[in-house]
Amino acid sequence: MKPSFDFPFLPQQILFLSSSLFKKTKYPCDSNVVSVRLTPSAALPFLCMPCLTLTGLSGSLSETNSEMLLSGTDSSRFGGKGEWNQSSGELVVCAAEDLPAQAAAFSFILINPERSESRDREIGLHVSATVTVPAQSSPARPKSCQSSKIVMDACSGAAPSHVYQACNDTDLKECWPLNVRGLVFEVKRIGQSSPHSGCVNTISVTLRTNVPLIVSEQCQPKLTISGLSGAQMIDPASAQVPLAAQLGQCKVGALSAFLFRSDATELSGFGKWVDSNNTLELWSAQRSQAGQTYIFSFQIKNPVAPQSAPASLSIRSLNGIFDSRKGLPSYQATQDVTGGVAPADEAAVCFLSTNSMAAVDMSLPEEAPCCLCAVEAGDAKPMAVKSPSFCMKRICQTSAGICSNNTITITISPTMVCTIHALSCPHHSCLNPLSRTLALFCEHVDGVH
User: Are residues 196 and 336 in the same domain?
Assistant: First the structure.
């Protein structure tokens, strides 16, 4: 009878420690600490060269590495390193010593994908070894043995308290490796300082996201704010738009203007104006914080002709490749994790990034701009431009005496930047003796009357 060589060891318990998976794992493009704990049913002798293979980790942005570092209590039992294959999503770790029949734990770092393709990914493990098969009439020969794949136990439980807006819904599987939240703009407000024709206008933007915008060797978030119809650049010769942080923000928010740059290679503190589609591009320059409100502003010049505010202005973080790196797509969310309808200016922080990517409408103010004359409710909506008018138009004289010299003083305050001219008249007088009127006209700095 030929000898039978059943594999003498199979893992009894295989699970992931949820306490080790919440530090960064839910954020796209972030470094993720994956922790593994297993208990073989029997000792695994080093003589058999046992190797463990984790499968199902496809999608990670970590490049193939034949010497991926391991950490944790028992990492030395595997020589402190493993072999990672990005295309197959597999990690192979081989024993460097006898593995006793007791719990063993190790960790490794994978870079999360920019979005989750599936939250129900199956992660498995199988064990392989090489044993020496005795032969009756020939020399002993090595024989490879391999266990069947064992599906890893899914983690459960809520995220720890330090996680921004921890999600308690187990269906979201936030602790499962490589499952990431989709980027949602929780706050996305935009307003303007002036609706007056031809004036310099400060556009203020308030943003808060449920995940950080992470800039790395693998990822380059790129945002666009669209719909600023009619906007003109202060310096038409340059596409760079200087950004400024709003005064009075906390220490983190005070750096709002430096979160972005006009291109992957440019200095931070600028955006890029695309005149062809009235869009401001913002390339992330540094990592932001989830749940932190950032307020920044930039200046444009209003058109001379009056116009209504656009029906909507939108913001999105683009999906694609930018500077040879992954973009971080944003999503539309209308419900929170409990199924309730989110407020108009809020979004679901616990969001499935398998849903549709989309631009989202920004919140527009209904109030009037501060500290200006001739404005009304709704004039703080960006690119609402009013017809020129006068905030003040007053005339007075110095003398009421008969036949006395009299100086007529005219005071006007137009809502547009202009130069006041008197029409040229005979004898250097603009007074019409028939109608008793003085003709003036306002010339806009760009030549529009």
Answer: yes
